[in-house]
């Protein structure tokens, strides 16, 4: 499977991409823990089948000190004992916010209550935007067939 299109090699694609990156940067600089951000982005990327994003967020999480056991269990977080209640709330929001078309109620009241129990207003705002942004990034990667495997941790740190 060959990539279809390099958005960043296109003038308009690059212009939009830089603005998109800045939204991600604002989320990254929020008080929402960075390791949690990587787990949430990894889970959404797994659901959406974005190899590029799975590659990025697995490697960034590992580089930040996330353990192999936890990384390997993200896809089965409900059936594992290695995630905190707060992390479980964020992962549930990531799943429900990613699978909107699969769920008649979207994000459940139970999940929302758990998120609000564990995260303050700024962290909740960052988490909601994070789920939306990673889903958009996943779609960009899947539509253009951006392949995983070549990402190096910190590759975009200077952008």
TrEMBL record:
Signal peptide: none annotated. It comes from the Bacteria. SUPFAM superfamilies: AhpD-like. Residues 19-96 form the Carboxymuconolactone decarboxylase-like domain. InterPro entries: AhpD-like, AhpD_core, CMD-like. It holds the Pfam family CMD. PANTHER family: 4-CARBOXYMUCONOLACTONE DECARBOXYLASE FAMILY PROTEIN (AFU_ORTHOLOGUE AFUA_6G11590), BLL7811 PROTEIN. This is Carboxymuconolactone decarboxylase family protein. The lineage of its organism: Bacteria, Bacillati, Actinomycetota, Actinomycetes, Streptosporangiales.
